[in-house]
């Protein structure tokens, strides 16, 4: 139970007391700042506290936005202020100061909010839009405020605000018009966003199972269920925004389940195709690699420029502004990058009416085009930018690189000798090109591929020996992902060993989870996973070298290579999942709320 302290008795006819109780507050009344401080001290530790002007007139949803959002330590709107437990000492100090100076009588909540800001507590002030939240000072102003409240349907505003502002075309026009009502239905029945997220995952897994049957009926059912899963995926976020039920666990589940659903469906399609005698595991791996590398490009670029100082490139901004001035270009630009809504719709329709091979080729071609489009634009902006990259951004890029103990050893040996002092991007391009070229051109199990892997370890390690502050150094993490993932795909495909490609798919799925987990930890401000975890699973360069060595040792021993890949996949999955779950359910986990359209 939270506590709301009114700064006096509500005006006659006011619904304020009932509105606050409907939001879950225990309402108490104070006569002034001193008594408000006494009531604040009496509230049990750990509870949220709100201070509300007794003259307040406004919509219930305005109060909900200002007083119940769990993401912020303090929040305020005209006539209303709330703090969570950690900010209560600052509120007590502000009340003491207000009482001692006699200030804040006409606008106590505003005075308190300003005092909290001055005390170092960031006060969130939600955008209310057409919602009313005001403190009238006389009868005429109160009458006008009540008329303004009656003129706006706050439930309609609440439903609209449950939808993301910048969703893709398919989501905006084909899902959100009705999924918001599903979210309201769930809220009224006490369902939580986490429950809806779990339902979305289970639906997608059932869809993958239907696709794995390899029959037309199964493919049609899979396509329908995949769309249902996406509707639920939109609903969970809309439910969180509608009911203001945000949580660290929910953010983590939403972030990881999207990838789990999509990659499980790829596996289901590959299994279904195999039942029909068509081996598309290499295409499934290619689609997963392309999607993951594309996301790493997004993450790396955003982290590299999150805290940059200085001017942004004028050329790219001018072009973007001209494009945004034409309404249709906004939707065209969102659609051509094939975001999650358009992508899942395409996969669902093609699954129902074509074959898995066609699905994968359409996915690979569409995502490759989208990746080239977005990456080219970011390269242009990076080359023309004048901003300086911060130390924190360089550190984030180093963490996204996922370099392990072998790279650290290279740094110790070569770091102070002046050897390999080429720019980091050049070293990474040389390392990636040499590794993939050797894997493609040399016979499976060739010792020359192992030599190329050693070369990759040295050059990849040297690439991260210095701070990654170059204009294009954000390309290093995706290059390393392409090298590691591509090498495993090529070796598994060229081994011609039964089960090698499915085993490689499992291995890459485990490694990709680790990389996504790293991204969301960095986004939450807690930094990369612990060093022991990165050392245990080898880093990208260690895993690449290990797989090439296994290929060389087991080239002539049939299914042993498949068994080795399977064992490696299981080991990495168990270690990574155990640490990830431990972290995200701990009290120190960040609340990651991604309001953008997932690519």
Q: If you had to describe this structure to a student in words, what would you say it looks like?
A:
With 599 residues, this protein is mainly α. 67% of the residues lie in helices and 5% in strands. The protein has 25 helices and 8 strands. The protein has helices spanning 16-22, 33-42, 60-67, 88-101, 108-118, 139-151, 154-161, 169-188, 193-211, 216-243, 248-275, 281-305, 314-324, 327-336, 340-353, 356-384, 391-401, 405-414, 424-441, 447-463, 476-495, 500-523, 531-536, 539-554, 560-584; strands at residues 2-6, 25-29, 49-52, 57-58, 74-77, 80-83, 123-124, 133-134. The strands form 2 sheets. Strands 2-1-3-6-5-7 form a 6-stranded mixed β-sheet, sandwiched between helices. The chain has a two-stranded antiparallel sheet with strand order 4-8. α8 crosses α10 (216-243) and α22 runs parallel beside α25. The longest helix is centred in the middle third of the chain and has 29 residues, at 356-384. Residues 310-325 have low confidence and may be disordered.
Low-confidence stretches: 310-325
Question: How many β strands by DSSP?
Answer: 8
Largest sheet: 6 strands, mixed
Distance between the termini: 39 Å
Mean pLDDT: 91
Structural class: mainly alpha
What is the helix tally?
25
Shape: globular
The strand order across the widest sheet is 2-1-3-6-5-7
The helix content, as a percent range, equals 55-70%
Cα-based radius of gyration, to the nearest Å: 28 Å
* Percent range for β-strand residues: under 5%
């Amino acid at each position: 139970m939270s506590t709301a302290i009114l700064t006096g008795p509500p005006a006659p006819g006011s619904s304020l007391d009932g509105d606050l109780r409907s939001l879950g507050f225990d309402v108490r009344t104070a006569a002034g700042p001193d008594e408000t401080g006494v009531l604040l001290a009496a509230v049990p530790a750990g509870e949220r506290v709100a201070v509300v002007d007794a003259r307040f007139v406004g919509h219930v949803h305005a109060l909900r936005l200002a007083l119940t959002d769990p993401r912020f330590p303090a929040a305020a709107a005209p006539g209303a202020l709330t703090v969570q437990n950690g900010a209560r000492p600052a509120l007590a100090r502000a009340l003491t100061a207000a009482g001692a100076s006699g200030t804040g009588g006409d606008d106590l909540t505003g005075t308190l909010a300003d005092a909290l800001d001055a005390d170092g507590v960031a006060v969130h002030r939600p955008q209310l839009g057409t919602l009313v939240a005001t403190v009238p000072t006389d009868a005429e102003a109160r009458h006008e405020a009540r008329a303004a409240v009656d003129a706006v349907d706050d439930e309609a505003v609440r439903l609209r605000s449950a939808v993301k502002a910048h969703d893709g075309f398919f989501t905006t026009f084909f899902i959100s018009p009705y999924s918001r009502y599903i979210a309201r239905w769930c809220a009224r029945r006490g369902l939580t966003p986490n429950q809806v997220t779990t339902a979305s995952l289970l639906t997608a897994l059932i869809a993958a199972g239907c696709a794995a049957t390899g029959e037309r009926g199964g493919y049609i059912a899979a396509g329908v269920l995949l769309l249902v899963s996406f509707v639920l995926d939109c609903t969970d976020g809309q439910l969180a925004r509608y009911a203001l039920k945000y949580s660290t666990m929910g953010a983590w589940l939403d972030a990881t389940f999207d990838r789990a659903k999509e990659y499980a469906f790829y596996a289901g399609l590959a299994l279904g195709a195999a039942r029909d005698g068509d081996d598309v595991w290499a295409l499934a791996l290619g689609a997963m690699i392309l999607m993951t590398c594309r996301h790493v490009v997004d993450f790396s670029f955003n982290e590299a420029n999150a805290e940059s100082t200085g001017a942004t490139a004028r050329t790219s901004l001018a072009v973007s502004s001209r494009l945004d001035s034409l309404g249709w270009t906004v939707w065209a630009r969102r659609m051509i990058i094939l975001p999650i809504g358009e992508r899942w719709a395409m996969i669902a329709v093609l699954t129902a009416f074509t074959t898995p091979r066609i699905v994968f080729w359409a996915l690979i071609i569409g995502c490759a085009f989208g990746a080239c489009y977005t990456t080219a634009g970011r390269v242009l902006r990076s080359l023309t930018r004048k901003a300086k990259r911060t130390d924190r951004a360089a550190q984030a890029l180093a963490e996204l690189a996922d370099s392990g103990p072998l790279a650290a050893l290279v740094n110790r040996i070569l770091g102070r000798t002046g050897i390999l002092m080429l720019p980091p991007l050049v070293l990474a391009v040389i390392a990636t090109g040499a590794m993939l070229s050797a894997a493609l051109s040399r016979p499976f199990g060739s010792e020359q591929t192992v030599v190329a892997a050693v070369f990759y370890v040295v050059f990849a390690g040297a690439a991260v020996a210095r701070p990654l502050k170059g204009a294009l150094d954000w390309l290093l993490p995706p290059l390393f992902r392409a090298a590691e993932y591509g090498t495993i795909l090529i070796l598994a495909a060229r081994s011609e060993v039964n089960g090698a490609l499915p085993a490689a798919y499992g291995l890459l799925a485990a490694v990709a989870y680790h990389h996504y987990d790293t991204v969301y930890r960095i986004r939450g401000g807690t930094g990369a996973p612990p060093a022991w975890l990165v050392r245990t699973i080898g880093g990208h360069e260690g895993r690449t070298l290990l797989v090439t060595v296994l290929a060389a040792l087991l080239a002539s021993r049939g299914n042993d290579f498949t068994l080795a890949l399977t064992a490696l996949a299981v080991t990495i999955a168990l270690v990574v999942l155990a640490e990830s779950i431990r972290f995200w359910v701990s009290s120190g986990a960040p609340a990651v709320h991604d309001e953008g359209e997932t690519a």
